[in-house]
Amino acid sequence: MATFVVGTSVETSENVVEVTVNPATPISPGTHHFQLVVVDDAGNQSDPAITQVVIRDATKPTAVLAVVPTQVAAGQSFRLDGSRSSDVPPGKVVKYIWTMLD
């Protein structure tokens, strides 16, 4: 178990870590990114791998947006996917509002 602070690395010898959340200072709702760098027995570091976790709000719906495929050639179509968006039951998502920002 580990308590994470933004910008501060946590080192372990185990290949799995539990993110321990203090109820007094929970991780805020929204999308958060975590990075992993591994080091071999010769001291060589890997390139970073980054993943995201979505912390759901207790009352508001949570938007989760993916793009398929993640890279496209100029002039090629792609899909925006909001199917992993959700609301806390018994609520349900009934509308998706899409905006291109730049």
Q: How do the strands and helices of this protein lay out in sequence?
A:
Elements lengths: L29 E7 L12 E7 L10 E3 L10 E3 L21
Antiparallel strand pairs: 1-2, 3-4
Keywords:
single chain; 102 residues; mainly beta; 2 domains; two-stranded antiparallel ribbon; 20% strand; flat
Shape: flat
Helix content: under 10%
Classify the beta-strand content into a percent band: 15-25%
Number of separate domains: 2
Note down, in words, how this protein is organized.
- By secondary structure, this protein is mainly β.
- It has two domains: 1-55, no CATH class; 58-102, no CATH class.
- It has strands at residues 30-36, 49-55, 66-68, 79-81.
- The strands form two sheets. The chain has a two-stranded antiparallel sheet. The protein has a two-stranded antiparallel ribbon with strand order 3-4.
- It is flat.
- It starts with 29 loop residues before the first strand and ends in a 21-residue tail after the last strand.
Short summary of the structure?
This protein has strands at residues 30-36, 49-55, 66-68, 79-81.
